[in-house]
UniProtKB/TrEMBL annotation:
Domain Bacterial bifunctional deaminase-reductase C-terminal residues, every copy: 5-177
One protein family per Pfam: RibD_C
Protein name (database record): Dihydrofolate reductase family protein
InterPro entries: DHFR-like_dom_sf, RibDG_C, Riboflavin_Biosynth_HTPR
Species: Actinoplanes hulinensis
PANTHER family registered for this protein in UniProt: BIFUNCTIONAL DEAMINASE-REDUCTASE DOMAIN PROTEIN, DIHYDROFOLATE REDUCTASE FAMILY PROTEIN (AFU_ORTHOLOGUE AFUA_8G06820)
Length: 185
């Protein structure tokens, strides 16, 4: 069984608005490495639609982008992408698959079938999967910014505190700190 790793950008005040992070070659290289190590990506519908609206065009060369972003886009195109949605059934982007029905069962099946692990990149979905006790690790990029607005990580709340074990903390040149935690069980 593979691990489910939640990975996301957030500011010091917990804002997870994708426009608030520092998107440079170093952060893209880090996320490319995380994606390379994982066997599949997992998103909620909103994140999928945001990604689908931009990255396929970068992969095709229809959008101008620096080399690190092109590399990410090409690898993302080839990577299996799984989407949780109760409202959308059709996911035409290359290698996209729908997880329908019981959330716990669907995600557990995905973990069981993906020995290299699954990389989760949706904040709202992470809250639901954490409530179901399915997240094993957290790879968070903490950006040196205070956004002063939401959405924020886990704003929907959890039933209890999650104890984590720090595996690594690496500062990047741009001031971002890459934090890697494992769930203490």
């Amino acid at each position: 069984m593979g691990l489910l790793t939640f990975s996301l950008n957030l500011t010091l005040d917990g804002c997870v608005d994708h426009q608030e992070g520092i998107a440079d070659d170093e952060t893209h290289a880090l996320f490319t490495r995380l994606m390379d190590e994982a066997g599949a990506m997992l998103w909620g519908r909103v994140t999928y639609e945001m990604m689908e609206s931009y990255w396929p065009a970068v992969a095709r060369g229809d959008e101008e982008a620096p080399p690190a972003m092109r590399e990410w886009a090409a690898k993302l195109e080839a990577k299996p992408k799984y989407v949780v949605s109760a409202t959308r059934k059709d996911f035409p982007w290359t290698n996209s698959h729908h997880i329908a029905g019981d959330l716990r069962e669907g995600v557990q099946r995905l973990k069981d079938a993906t020995p290299a692990g699954v990389l989760l990149g949706s904040g709202k979905l992470a809250t639901e999967l954490d409530r179901l006790d399915l997240i094993d690790e957290y790879q968070l990029l903490v950006h040196p910014r205070i956004a002063g607005h939401g959405p924020t990580l886990y704003q929907g709340g959890l039933p209890g505190t999650r104890q984590l074990e720090l595996l690594s903390a690496k500062p990047l040149r741009n001031g971002v700190v890459a934090m890697h935690y494992r769930r203490a069980r």
